[in-house]
């Protein structure tokens, strides 16, 4: 039977700032593959101490995401990716639902800036982009 696990990946670094945790590097590479054109943005999000990296596994890695907590009330989902060969089978919804319960349990609203608003709308987000906002940077909001 399928059994999926959500985990937060630690970012242990050496004194010189080298990431020591293989799970972190594996999840980072996984996100690079899900977002081939966004490697720099992912790297920069993961370089911040204010972000958290998450994995979703069923034995092997099937999903990864980056979150943060910009204010005491808000959570932000920066990137969420499912392995390309496993997309469109409901896994993104399961992953997000688990993440919302664990990463954002004490938040009142969640923000996501995305090029895939339909995925977020199906999860209860509303598009609150200001007029003229780019299609690739829709500002999605969900109240909890
Ligand atoms: C977006 C992504 C995380 C969705 O995961 P998934 O496992 O494919 O999605 P699911 O099968 O769980 O679909 C959940 C819902 O979202 C919708 N959806 C998912 N991806 C969509 C897309 N690209 N465009 C439109 N709707 C989409 C599905 O139709 C489904 O809606 P429904 O429940 O009303 O039928 C995944 O496709 C992915 O990793 N894409 C590449 C990276 C990306 O664009 N991430 C999101 C921006 S941060």
- The number of distinct structural domains comes to 1
- Radius of gyration over C-alpha positions, nearest whole angstrom: 15 Å
Strand element count: 7
**Number of continuous helical runs:** 4
Helical proportion? 25-40%
3D structure, described in words:
This protein is of the alpha+beta class. The chain has a single domain, classed as Aminopeptidase (3-Layer(aba) Sandwich), CATH 3.40.630.30. The chain is built from four helices and seven strands; from the N terminus they run βααβββαβαββ. It has a seven-stranded mixed β-sheet, sandwiched between helices. A hairpin with a 1-residue loop joins strand 2 (51-58) and strand 3 (60-68). Helix 1 runs antiparallel to helix 2. The chain is globular and about 45 Å long. The termini are far apart. 27% of the residues are buried. Residues 34-35, 79-82, 87-93, 114, 116, 118-119, 122 line the site of coenzyme A.
Would you summarize the structure shown here?
Helices cover 28% and strands 31% of the residues.
Which features characterize this protein?
alpha+beta; about 140 residues; binds coenzyme A; about 30% helix
Would you spell out the secondary-structure blueprint of this structure?
Blueprint: E1 5-9, H1 22-34, H2 39-47, E2 51-58, E3 60-68, E4 74-82, H3 91-103, E5 109-114, H4 117-121, E6 126-127, E7 138-143
Helix pairs in contact: 1-2
The structure holds coenzyme A (COA).
